[in-house]
Every structure is written in structure tokens, then in C-alpha cells.
Write a structure and sequence with these properties.
The complex is a heterodimer of chains A (111) and B (109).
Chain A: E1 4-7, E2 10-13, E3 19-25, E4 31-37, E5 44-51, E6 54-57, E7 65-66, E8 76-78, E9 87-94, E10 101-102, E11 106-110
Parallel strand pairs in A: 2-11
Antiparallel strand pairs in A: 1-3, 3-8, 4-5, 4-9, 5-6, 7-8, 9-10, 9-11
Chain B: E1 10-14, E2 19-24, E3 32-38, E4 45-51, E5 56-58, E6 62-67, E7 72-77, E8 86-93, E9 97-99, E10 103-108
Parallel strand pairs in B: 1-10
Antiparallel strand pairs in B: 2-7, 3-4, 3-8, 5-6, 6-7, 8-9, 8-10
Chain lengths: 111, 109
């Protein structure tokens, strides 16, 4: 089954404690991206990757890092999480530049 | 269409009726549009897209209409089913994709 998986689905952490949200797709897509979804706002892009070893900032990249060492994986790293990063995060993949397949989401609470 | 604040506009329809969900977009230079469906607790799901050189595009039980004159996009769902209950939002693309906040569709028996 074609899918994008994310782990963990839910995470509660404290300010400053580094965390990683994993994302993996099994469709051999070149394009992957991360979004955050907050109440009253549309999805906002954090980072995207056009291919292995190619990443670029989206609209809200501050406080986040990503890596793309393999085509299927695109982890999101929060080196020092802060409460304003409390959000619902989605990973997405696509054969082109616009997201078509989204993961199930990771709900993050930073205390 | 687009929401204001934290409360999504809601469309309630009876099972079997047709649904029309509207979206006003902001940039007249947008050349590509996508509709997504997001069920509770799940990630968004691509439904249908349309390019600006088209006025209408049909999929399975869904039709998207584009009116560039008034910068308006609509999603029509034929014979709405309980499984169609979700938040629907549009996205417009110029040099990047901008997402709307969506409309909640509620289907009642």
C-alpha cells in the first residue's frame, strides 16, 4: 500500500529537549516536505526536499532542521523545542512539487 | 470558503444531496489549484486539481469549477455520502502553494 508514515503520532516534551519526528514514504517519490497545521491557519510549509541531499526552507523554517540522506526518509529535527512549536505536523511526498500524499500527522506539545 | 479566526465555516447536507464547497483565492497570478480532504485525525488527502487554463474538471463524483474573473474556486460533490464528512480546503499555487483553512462538511442521514 502506498503510504507516508510518521512517528511518533503523539509527543509531549519539555522546552529545550531535542526531538526528531521521522517520516518515510514507500512510493519512490523525489519530493518530500514538512508542514505544520495550527488552528485558524492553513498548512504552512517548514522545509522541503526535491531529492536526496537537496533541502530548502519553506515559509516557517525557524527552529527546525531536516535531512534527506535517503530518498524514502525525511526526518524533522527540533534541536531546542519551544512552546510555540506546539502544533500538528504533517509530512508529505509527491512525484512532483505539490504535496499529494500526506502522513497521518504528529501532534506535538512542548511544555 | 476561507475561514476567519478559529471557527471553520460548516456546510451541512443530507445524505444523497449534492454539496458545493467554495473557496476564494487571493492571487490572480495563481496558475494551479488543488482541493484536499482532511478527515478527523488524519492527514490531508489530495482530491482533484485544476490548472488556470481550465474552467472545469471532473473526477469521480467530484467537479471543480474555476472562475478566474472573481477568483473563485468551488468543489462539487455529487450524491454526498457519510464518508464525505471532513474538512475540505483549497490551495493555490503561484511560486508556492498557499493553503486555505477550509470548510467542514457534515453529512446527516
Amino acid at each position: 500500500e502506498a503510504q507516508v508514515t510518521q512517528n511518533p503520532r503523539y509527543l509531549i516534551t519539555v522546552t529545550g529537549k531535542k526531538l526528531t519526528v521521522t517520516c518515510s514514504q514507500n512510493m519512490n517519490h523525489e519530493y518530500m516536505s514538512w508542514y505544520r497545521q495550527d488552528p485558524g491557519l492553513g498548512l504552512r510549509q517548514i522545509y522541503y526536499s526535491m531529492n536526496v541531499e537537496v533541502t530548502d526552507k519553506g515559509d516557517v523554517p525557524e527552529g527546525y532542521k531536516v535531512s534527506r540522506k535517503e530518498k524514502r526518509n525525511f526526518p524533522l529535527i527540533l534541536e531546542s523545542p519551544s512552546p510555540n512549536q506546539t502544533s500538528l505536523y504533517f509530512c508529505a511526498s509527491s512525484p512532483t512539487g505539490d504535496p499529494q500524499y500526506f502522513g497521518p500527522g504528529t501532534r506535538l506539545l512542548v511544555l | 470558503g476561507e475561514s476567519v479566526g478559529l471557527h471553520l465555516p460548516t456546510l451541512s447536507v443530507q445524505e444523497g444531496d449534492n454539496s458545493i464547497i467554495n473557496c476564494a483565492y487571493s492571487n490572480s497570478a495563481s496558475d494551479y489549484f488543488i482541493w484536499y480532504k482532511q478527515e478527523s485525525g488524519k492527514g490531508p488527502q489530495f482530491i482533484i486539481d485544476i490548472r488556470s487554463n481550465m474552467d472545469k474538471r471532473q473526477g469521480q463524483r467530484v467537479t471543480v469549477l474555476l472562475n478566474k474573473t472573481v477568483k473563485h474556486l468551488s468543489l462539487q460533490i455529487a450524491a454526498t455520502q457519510p464518508g464525505d464528512s471532513a474538512v475540505y480546503f483549497c490551495a493555490e499555487n503561484t511560486d508556492k502553494l498557499i493553503f486555505g483553512t477550509g470548510t467542514r462538511l457534515q453529512v446527516f442521514p
